Amino acid sequence: MDMEASGNIVELSGIHKRYILKHALTGIDLEIKKGRIVGLLGPNGSGKSTLLKILAGLIHPTSGTVRIDGRAPDANRKKQIAYLPEIDHLYGWMTVDETLRFIAGFYDDWQADKADELLATMNLDGRQKVRNLSKGLRARLKLIVALSRSVPLVLLDEPFSGIDPSSRAKIIRSIVSEFRTGEQTIILSTHSVSESEPMFDDVMFLQQGSVRLFDSADNLRSDYGCSLENIWEKVYA
């Protein structure tokens, strides 16, 4: 089936990823529809970051096929994906404003007006040096970088790490308000399940490199009769 016609932004078939001492992914078969916010959940070592890197085209699976919007990943497809890694990739000697201008120069799809709005929403001072920002403020800046691009697929790996709970709730509301249903898909890996739960359309639970559960958030809550956070506890007890 033509994936573009089927409405899938992502299709994975038989994805394995082996490292020398570890089998990170053990046969992922997966379809993700366009225009959804997908929660990628699982304990450390379950394969979340590896899966996101494969989708971003940063690493290749040992076996299996990857299709993004109907095509195999290539240089052009990478340009249509915004990826926020868990590691800090910002230059400390730049100011916040300089960082955003620097990154804007790499992408034709950069939305300066959206970056300015997010800068205000996340209470960041554009004149501050990145090296002087707290871990939480640097996490906010990384989110601005990812969310300011007009691309079909946004991949966020632990974007709320270091951000306090009250600020997380505000940022999540901002992401949801900016999200344009039907035009963009967001796949978000997080341990902050309780705060993030309201934003998820679909949820995937990974365990030891394979998909343990994948369904709409509403169906999972209905089937288990509890919140996603409580489902987490049941799955990984």
TrEMBL record:
Signal peptide: none annotated. The keyword ATP-binding applies. It comes from the Bacteria. Pfam families: ABC_tran (PF00005). Transmembrane segments: none annotated. Residues 10-233 form the ABC transporter domain. This is ATP-binding cassette domain-containing protein.
